[in-house]
Amino acid sequence: MSPERPASASSGIGAIQARRVLLQWDNGAWSVRRAERIGLKVFPASSRLPKGAAISGFWYELVAPDGAVLYRRVMQDPTRQQVSIPLRDGSYTSAALRRPRALLQILVPAEPPDATLQVWGQQLTTDRRVPRAQLLARLPLGATGRPTGGDAQ
Predict the structure, then answer these.
(1) Peptide bond between residue 112 and the one before it cis (omega within 30 degrees of 0)
(2) What are the residue ranges spanned by the domains of the chain?
């Protein structure tokens, strides 16, 4: 993971120019469907990750051209859903399923204009989770706010 250099949004103080990004998950790959500048927004403080080697979970980061993390949000993985499965004894168990497609709309700071959006999470392999999060996609947003790249690297 990259070093952190908080944008003014990271402190959660003051309104800054925002960018709305519509991400699409489609059969194993993330892509940017649309990115546009919108008005001013007061962002919550950037999420912090725990120190340590094996970090799990799902988050996205806005990364400067020099690799510094400018903004991060930790959230529930939108590609998974929990379902309850009835058992013969009348009780229930739960299982995680991966959705074949998902849309996720996020807000990130609009500056710098040539920032990259990184999506982190856990790959599913034969219904077992990899214990640490991996970089799932690196998506250049481009100077115009429109996507310049597509699928996960």
Answers:
(1) yes
(2) 8-140
| Residue 1 reports pLDDT greater than 80 | no
Longest dimension (CA), the chain: 58
Measured CA to CA, the distance from residue 18 to residue 37 in angstroms comes to: 6
The answer, as to whether pTM is greater than 0.90, is no
d(CA 59, CA 109): 15
Q: Is 148 helix (H, G, I), strand (E, B) or coil?
A: coil
Residue 106 phi, psi dihedral angles, 5° rounding: -130, 160
Beta bridge partners of 92: 86
Residue-level pLDDT at 55: 83
Q: What b/e string do you get for 125-144 counting C-beta neighbours within 10 Å, with b at 16 or more?
A: eeeeeeeebeebbbbbbbee
Identify the pLDDT of residue 149: 41
Pick from 48-52, 69-73, 113-117: least confident:
48-52
- Distance between CA atoms of residues 107 and 18, nearest Å: 7
95 Cβ contact partners less than 8 Å away, ≥ 6 residues apart: 82, 83, 85
